[in-house]
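Aim 2 progress update. The chain analyzed this quarter is reproduced below.
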Amino acid sequence: MDAEVVIRAQQGDRGAFTCIADEILDRFLAVAHRILRDGALAEDATQAALLDIWRDLPRLRDPERFGAWSTRILVNACYSEARRARRWLPNLPLDAAPEPVAADDFGPLLDRDELERGFRAVPVDQRTVIVLHHYLGMPLATVAQTLGVPEGTVRSRLHRGMSIIRRTLASSQQRRLSAAGQEASR
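Predicted structure tokens:
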């Protein structure tokens, strides 16, 4: 982000802020969607983040740090949306996934579905670290700085989140193999 545009926006230049918003909107929506796993929640979090950025921009001390600062605001907005959504979700038990269909042409679709199921099983704070590190390519030290937590916390969240995804994928694979074995014995 160009520091001059940020400085102009800090001084109340709406056109400069519009340039900033246009530049970061798609990335923010993509990151929020990957964290929240819901398009409507991602849009709400992105909108809330943009409003917070506009409101808090005059207090930003170092315009060169706009990227990390604005990403932290987005992550906080995602956390707020996740908490709000959790309050409204019915407390229904999640049953095991339905019996898998034959792999034939649906293999890639099933794989993507299983990966999505695994990603949804990861708590939002761990999912955030995975998204910032693997999707945005941030080094762990930068993720820690962006989230305002120690690097060790980031490392443990990444490890725990990836472990949950691996376990979910392994159990899905086990169910698939079991179903294929039952089908073969018929």
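Helices lie at 3-10, 14-36, 39-56, 66-88, 107-120, 124-135, 140-147, 151-185. The first helix runs from residue 3 to 10. These observations will guide the mutagenesis experiments scheduled for the next reporting period.
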